[in-house]
């Protein structure tokens, strides 16, 4: 007798029983595959959203960095303009110049060649900028019967390797004179007036506001004219400079570098101006760094929030699947076992007849297990198909979905899909094993007598 024919007849004869078993297997497999599809899609979507969020944050930080740099540059320009009134903060003097003379008389007697400023400008110096050669003498202004300090300056000399920079002070043109506040107040002169100094006429080009310093009793003229008036052709008393943003012991660095270029000179730092400039630069830099740091921290917080939200969703889905899938699989196994047991009891008389006409225990076991295998295999295939479709529907409903290529790219879902039908076949066979064994081992004579 052909066992496979008996299996086919069995399935046709008891369609409802087989359909219920098939449904149980399909539900179990579809729940497993659907859950894995959803979890895989969650990971893909999390990665996608985090990548998009990271790009958005990077763009935002880049824009913020550019804005901070622009604002920082504008702030530095503002501070730079505000610091003009402080003047230069580094004074390069001849080594023989007495500082007492400068502080007590406001003038300088020691000189050095004017070409020193060009030598400094053509060097590779990095600690100072904005070089301004000058002569400074306290003189008696005979035409106005008063003592004043005469300062002769020319335009700032740029340091060649550092490029051109906007000068801190405008050059005093030839034939022009700039008057300090106390002088023009007492002389009652205005811009455009002509004044005479040591036999030479000058046009007043600018009147300084009150500064509360020696500048109030100072007049500024062109360097070449000052050298001629004072008999100092090709000589200067000092080179004024502005220190760069050096860290550490600034003045020691400046002195070491300048002495290597201009031996026989001394370097004096005007402390209050240097300190004010340094604090202003530091404050501007700190403000810019704080703004940039806040932008970066905000970006990190946004990424962390997005990640926490996605991880929370993944954990909820994983927790739900961890409870639902085992329960459904266990219920499916129990259902298949009960269906197999009920089927075998209902067919006791038929089984007794089959045993009486020569069907062996092994053949009976093969018939029952073959039916269970067909049940598991068909239910597994149906469950895989249903699980994939249901999983895709759930994913599409919540986040716009993912492609099949993305879902199967990781390999986890592929492994579940491939292993699900064989696993369903094994579990169906396992659930049917004990009922089939109990019936197949019974004595046909006892079965027929009971019937």
Outline of the structure:
With 451 residues, the protein is α+β, with helices and mostly antiparallel strands. The chain has 13 helices and eleven strands. The protein has helices at 3-13, 15-82, 99-105, 115-121, 181-187, 223-230, 250-261, 271-346, 348-356, 361-399, 404-409, 412-440, 444-450, and strands at residues 90-94, 112-113, 128-141, 146-153, 176-179, 194-197, 200-207, 218-222, 235-236, 238-243, 265-269.
Walk me through what this model shows.
This protein has 451 residues and is α+β, with helices and mostly antiparallel strands. The protein folds into two domains: 219 residues, no CATH class; 180 residues, no CATH class. 63% of the residues lie in helices and 14% in strands. The protein is built from 13 helices and eleven strands. The longest helix is centred in the last third of the chain and has 76 residues. The mean pLDDT is 77.
């Amino acid at each position: 007798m052909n066992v496979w024919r008996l299996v086919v007849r069995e399935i046709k004869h008891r369609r409802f029983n087989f359909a219920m078993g098939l449904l149980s297997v399909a539900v179990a497999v579809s729940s497993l595959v659907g859950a894995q599809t959803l979890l895989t899609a969650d990971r893909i979507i999390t990665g996608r959203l985090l990548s998009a969020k990271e790009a958005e944050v990077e763009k935002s930080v880049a824009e913020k960095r550019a804005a901070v740099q622009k604002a920082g540059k504008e702030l530095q320009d503002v501070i730079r303009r505000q610091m003009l009134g402080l003047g230069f903060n580094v004074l390069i003097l001849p080594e023989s110049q007495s500082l007492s003379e400068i502080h007590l008389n406001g003038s300088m007697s020691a000189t050095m060649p004017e070409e020193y400023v060009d030598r400094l400008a053509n060097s590779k110096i990095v600690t100072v900028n904005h070089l301004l050669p000058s002569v400074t003498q306290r003189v008696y202004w005979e035409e106005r019967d008063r003592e004043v300090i005469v300062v002769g300056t020319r335009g700032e000399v740029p340091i060649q390797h550092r490029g051109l920079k906007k000068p801190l002070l405008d050059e005093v043109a030839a034939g022009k004179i700039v008057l300090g506040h106390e002088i023009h107040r007492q002389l009652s002169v205005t811009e455009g007036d002509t004044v005479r100094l040591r036999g030479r006429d000058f046009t007043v080009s600018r009147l300084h506001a009150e500064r509360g310093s020696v500048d109030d009793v100072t007049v500024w003229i062109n360097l070449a004219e000052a050298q001629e008036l004072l008999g100092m052709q090709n000589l200067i008393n000092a080179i004024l400079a502005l220190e760069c943003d050096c860290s550490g012991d600034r003045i020691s660095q400046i002195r070491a570098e300048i002495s290597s270029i201009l031996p026989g000179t001394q370097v004096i730092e005007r402390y209050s101006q240097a300190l004010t400039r340094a604090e202003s630069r530091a404050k501007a830099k700190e403000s810019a760094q704080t703004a940039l740091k806040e932008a970066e921290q905000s970006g990190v917080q946004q990424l962390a929030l997005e990640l926490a939200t996605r991880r929370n969703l993944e954990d909820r889905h994983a927790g739900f699947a961890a409870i639902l899938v085992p329960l459904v699989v266990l219920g499916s196994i129990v259902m298949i076992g009960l269906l197999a047991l009920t089927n075998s009891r209902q067919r006791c008389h038929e089984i007794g007849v089959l045993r009486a006409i020569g069907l062996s225990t092994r053949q009976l076991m093969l018939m029952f297990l073959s039916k269970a295998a067909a049940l598991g295999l068909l239910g597994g295939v149906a469950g895989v198909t249903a699980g994939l479709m249901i999983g895709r529907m759930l994913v599409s409903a919540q986040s716009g979905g993912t492609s099949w290529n993305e879902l199967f790219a990781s390999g986890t879902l592929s492994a579940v899909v491939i292993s699900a039908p064989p696993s369903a076949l094994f579990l169906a066979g396992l659930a049917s094993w004990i009922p089939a064994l109990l019936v197949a081992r019974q004595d046909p004579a006892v079965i027929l007598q009971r019937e």
